[in-house]
Amino acid sequence: MTNTHSSFLKEMGITEWTARDGSAEVANVTQSQLVVNVAVSTESAPKAHWWFFGSQPQGDAQILFQNVIRVLGLASNEWSWKSPNDNLSKMHASENAVPLVAIAFGGPTAQKITGERDPLPQLRETILALNTGNDDEIPVVATFDLAQLATKSKDKTLLWQDLLLAKSILQNT
Asked: Per residue in 35-94, pLDDT tens?
């Protein structure tokens, strides 16, 4: 493991890390939009899909998001950025039966996409459901806003706990 990877992981409170498939994965997020170019193995079909909801990160928050993608080992076809202002009734799980989980960055985002009214501290560490209005039950994990996490490094361990909860949802589906 390189010193760069090690420092990213230590910053998130992770002491040991092993690549999911043994391939080296590199992610780059551009300043103007969330575009990640990832070198992946020969697998083309995603094993799971992640939806990230929130305001588009910029600056340090964008770098933090890039590190989240790296640490999770996600290829570009395994995640997508969604706006909480998107029409949720048109969102549904894919037809190819790939497990799906959504991460809501920030309390207002979590409240908007789930219909919950509780503040973020009560929504965290709970599996919520995306309020699409149809029969799809898409699990949602609420976590801190990326801009807040970029300024409060001790909360990054709580972000990691939320990401682990989301990973456990995918492993149990």
From this structure: 444 444 435 677 889 999 999 999 999 999 999 999 999 999 999 999 999 888 787 766
For the chain, how far is it from start to end, CA to CA, in angstroms? 30
Give me the residue label for tokens 């890039």: 66
Q: Provide the 8-state DSSP code for 56.
A: P
Which CA distances in Å does 161 have to 2, 66, 86, 126? 24, 17, 27, 11
**Cα–Cα distance for residue pair 112/82, rounded to 1 Å:** 13
What the block records as the tokens of 52 is: 């990230």
> Model pTM?
0.74
CA dihedral sign of residues 151, 157, 158, 161: positive
φ, ψ for residue 28, nearest 5 deg:
-130, 130
User: How many C-alpha atoms does 120 have within 13 Å on its Cβ side?
Assistant: 16
